[in-house]
Amino acid sequence: MTGLAVTTISRALNNAPELAQETRDRVQKIAAEIGYLPDRAALRLKTGRTNVIALLLEPDEQIYGFGTNLVTGITEALRDTAYHLVITPLFRNVPPIEPIRHIVRNRMADGVIFSKAEMFDERIRFLLDSDFPFVSHGRSRWPEPHPFVDFDNEAYAYGATKRLAERGCRKVSIVLPDSALTYTEHLKAGIARAAAETGIAYEFAADVNLGSATDAIRNYVIKRAKRPDPPDGYVCASEVSALAVIGALTDAGLVLGKNAHVVTKQSTSMFMQFQPNAETVQEDFADAGRHLGRLLLRQISGETEGLTHIAEPKFEWAG
């Protein structure tokens, strides 16, 4: 249809700069008109590439838009590239390493993205040892550097605790993530440092964590509010836990914004429509997704330096 050689067409479809723009435009126009798509199996055989990026998500990570916003950001990063995104579900009864092994061993993607990085995450260890491109949402403590995107949770917990001290709180508490997750230690360090500087007390919720059912978190906070020396301020690491904490404080007879205070991370504007008396700090998961996608593309292309990004919290208190 074009009268051009196959190699020329291939270069034109890949926007090779050495070809004249007129040639590239003509080839791409005809390809669009006839609905041409490259055969993915043939592409993989010829280049070793799949043009697939795999994102691992747990089904419950869709709550409050975490998964949706992450996908939005990654998709934006992949726009105008040859890559497309495939979501691989990670179910609770499946070890997190299993889908990673399956993808790598069968070369089902050119790179992977996953969240909830642990301090000594076996997924990160496996991918480093396999020399397979990846970016984690969260950091690890392996001695080798690895690509990651993270939120500065230590700075968040520090700023949130100082804010609660400013509001007159005598003791702050937090329902922490699972102890294996790296950002759990970041949250603990931020709270401890701010409490030491402001002279207030702090404690970490016992018997529950962010993975606990909301009813369990709510019951814990109610019981703790009725025992001696209860916390009057809570730093929350997620909107879901914040809703459970606020409901419990209300059930215990406390008034949010008066004799009890909450600071929470939020990823959407929805939370403040229902709980205006809590204070919030934005964590932008769509922006995190954009960085995850861009860093992974850079790694796939062969880059090895500067493949990390840490988002800093922005504190914008009302008064």
From TrEMBL:
Keyword Translocase: no
PROSITE patterns listed in its UniProt record: HTH_LACI_2
Superkingdom classification of source: Bacteria
Matching InterPro entries: HTH_LacI, LacI/GalR-like_sensor, Lambda_DNA-bd_dom_sf, Peripla_BP_I
Entry keywords, A to Z: DNA-binding, Transcription, Transcription regulation
Pfam families in the cross-refs: LacI (PF00356), Peripla_BP_3 (PF13377)
Protein name in UniProt: LacI family transcriptional regulator
One GO MF term: transcription cis-regulatory region binding
